[in-house]
Design goal:
The chain has about 200 residues and is α/β, with parallel strands linked by helices. Helices cover about 35% and strands about 30% of the residues. The chain is globular, with a radius of gyration of 16 Å.
Length: about 200
């Protein structure tokens, strides 16, 4: 789906992904010391808003202007100090540049791209992370096509934790701390996601 398609989806649905952060993002990040974060393809900003409430300074980026409008409106409802820690940008994560070693946390949550674009995004995300900072990736797992529910039906867009771990490890200055297929209960059944946590060394 292109940016126009996502605009339509966000325009006609109130909080497409809900108000609460993704459960795996919460579990991975709730114990981290707050710093500077970037949320790539942030949608309406549920993860970025949650991080800001924890004390993080967060930039959320998405190529849907409607999603960023929603995120900005949600920011206005936050306490003043939380709002100060949030900023939003309309941008395509496939082509934008990220300053190297500029964040302590890079979040890639349900960003499904063809293999070459996915590899490019991972490289940019890793390079944006400072030494000892972390990259969190969560997305629909390849096994979900046969064993789970919902999600993209194009296998090339799906994640495999072993492949992603190898891709990140090959960059040379990344320690993959966790890489696995995890279960996510939904109203339609159990979905399978890939979850990876890596640290910049």
């Amino acid at each position: 789906m292109d940016a126009d398609g996502w605009d339509e989806r966000y325009r006609h649905t109130d909080l497409v992904w809900g108000a609460e952060p993704n459960q795996f993002v919460r579990r991975q990040c709730e114990s981290f010391l707050p710093g500077v974060a970037v949320d790539l393809a942030c949608g309406e900003g549920r993860n970025a808003l949650w991080l800001a409430r924890l004390g993080w300074r967060v930039l959320g980026i998405d190529y849907s202007p409607v999603a960023i409008e929603r995120a900005t409106a949600l920011t206005a409802r936050q306490p003043y100090d939380v709002g100060l820690r949030l900023s939003w940008q309309v941008g395509d994560v496939r082509t934008l540049s990220l300053a190297e070693e500029s964040v302590d946390l890079a979040l890639v949550s349900y960003v499904h791209l063809p293999p070459e674009q996915r590899a490019s995004l991972m490289l940019k995300a890793v390079r944006a992370v400072r030494s000892q900072g972390r990259l969190i990736v969560v997305g629909h797992d390849r096994r979900n096509l046969r064993e789970g529910v919902s999600g993209p039906q194009d296998e090339t867009l799906l994640y495999d934790p072993t492949e992603l771990k190898a891709m990140l490890a090959a960059l040379g200055d990344v320690s993959v701390e966790f890489a696995a297929t995890v279960e996510r209960p939904t109203a339609d059944g159990v979905a399978l996601d890939t979850l990876v946590r890596a640290r910049r060394t």
